[in-house]
Specification:
alpha/beta; six-stranded mixed β-sheet; five-stranded mixed β-sheet; 48% helix
């Protein structure tokens, strides 16, 4: 169980002891909470004592009377607001003027518990306060994690673009200084490597466009009936020149009709990425096989190759953004490290699954299952 610290500031001893007695044996639970909450109550008879305790113990919940000897409850509330403390405050008071109510609400009080109150009335208020405190902290945590992920993404992206730009600058300065000779043919190698770097950056930018498209575009407006066999055939035509260059044969095996409701561009992203990978990471003279099948409830896509394969430990990170498997066999193969993470996001967008089975020097098999009936595209 988690414990929430409650501070009661009230000049009436009976109220303070009553709150302590009621909450010391009380716990709050909701289905969305990971654990139950219990309460540890501390008491203060004046606003000055209360401020001293909250500075020392930083409670989670403050039950605050307004009519106090010395500084008033609304002044304690203003003190908390100015310091932006993460404390949920409820006013407990016999009466409150409209001015006090407005000021307390403006300064962050989320509830008013009129005195005298029954144990059940206090428990009901504490349940509501606990829920609000929980949701407030969960929301703050999610925002912080979102910021952290965005910064990590931008950091990795900057690195991915910085490296090829540095290489290009180096090659251009080499040619500017005529370090290899006076003839253009003397620079065939740095020119070729510069073109490879530019192609790599272009691939990265295209993958980023796909990446943002998946995350930002409204899908429902573009969904239509899509025949996956036609999309696969078009993807094969696109990658065919590269397959001829690599001497890799591609075979499309359509075992049954596979039609789903989808944005056709999303399906093009899936097939283009997986078929081009099946060629790119293959061996000279290898094979790539695309199988399309379906059952009553789902379509099944299998893209296999006879390529270099990867180890089981590498498959665990295969769908992580900007992750590329680096070894002697992949050293000269360019890629952004985004393609497979994009494929996975697209498949999940349609409530599908993607699995990979790979063996080094034997090949890799990707299996995708997508439900035929889509309730919503999320």
């Amino acid at each position: 169980m988690a414990v929430l610290k409650v501070l009661v500031i009230d000049d009436e001893p009976g109220i303070r002891s009553g709150v302590s007695r009621i909450l010391n044996n009380f716990h709050v639970t909701y289905p969305f909470m990971e654990e139950d909450y219990t309460f540890e109550v501390t008491e203060a008879a004046t606003g000055e004592d209360g401020i001293e305790i909250l500075e020392r113990e930083m409670p989670d919940i403050l039950l605050l009377d307004n009519k106090l000897p010395g500084i008033q409850g609304v002044e304690v509330l203003e003190y908390i607001r100015k310091r932006n403390y993460d404390i949920v405050v409820a006013m407990i008071t016999s009466y409150a003027s409209l001015d006090v109510a407005i000021r307390a609400t403006r300064d962050g009080a989320i509830d008013f518990i009129p005195k005298p109150f029954t144990p059940q009335e206090l428990k009901s208020s504490i349940e509501n306060i606990t829920k609000q405190q929980y949701l407030k902290r969960i929301t703050h945590k999610m925002k912080q994690e979102g910021k952290k992920i965005r910064y990590q993404f931008l950091s990795v992206l900057s690195h991915e673009l910085k490296a090829p730009l540095n290489a290009l600058e180096g090659y251009l300065r080499m040619m500017q200084a005529k370090q290899a000779g006076d003839m253009i043919d003397d620079y065939a190698t740095p020119i070729e490597r510069s073109l490879q770097r530019i192609q790599g950056m272009r691939n990265l930018i295209m993958d980023l466009l796909d990446f943002t498209k998946i995350r930002l575009e409204r899908k429902e407006e573009k969904v239509e009936e899509v025949n996956l066999s036609e999309i696969a055939s078009a993807a094969i035509v696109t990658v065919q020149p590269y397959a001829i260059q690599m001497d890799v044969s591609i075979n499309l095996d359509i075992r049954s009709e596979a039609i789903i409701m989808a944005d056709p561009v999303d399906m093009e992203i899936v097939f283009n990425n997986l078929i081009s990978n099946a060629v790119k990471y293959n061996k000279v003279g290898g094979k790539a096989e695309i199988t399309i099948d379906s059952s009553d409830s789902e379509v099944i896509l299998i893209i296999s190759d006879t390529g270099i394969g990867i180890t089981k430990s590498d498959t665990e990170n295969l769908f992580t953004e900007f992750v590329r498997i680096k070894n002697e066999k992949t050293r000269n193969i360019s890629g952004s490290g985004l393609g497979l993470s994009i494929v996975k996001k697209v498949v999940e967008l349609y409530h599908g699954t993607i699995n990979v089975d790979s063996t080094p020097d034997v090949g890799t098999v990707f299996t995708i299952r997508i439900p035929k009936k889509q309730i919503t595209i999320t």
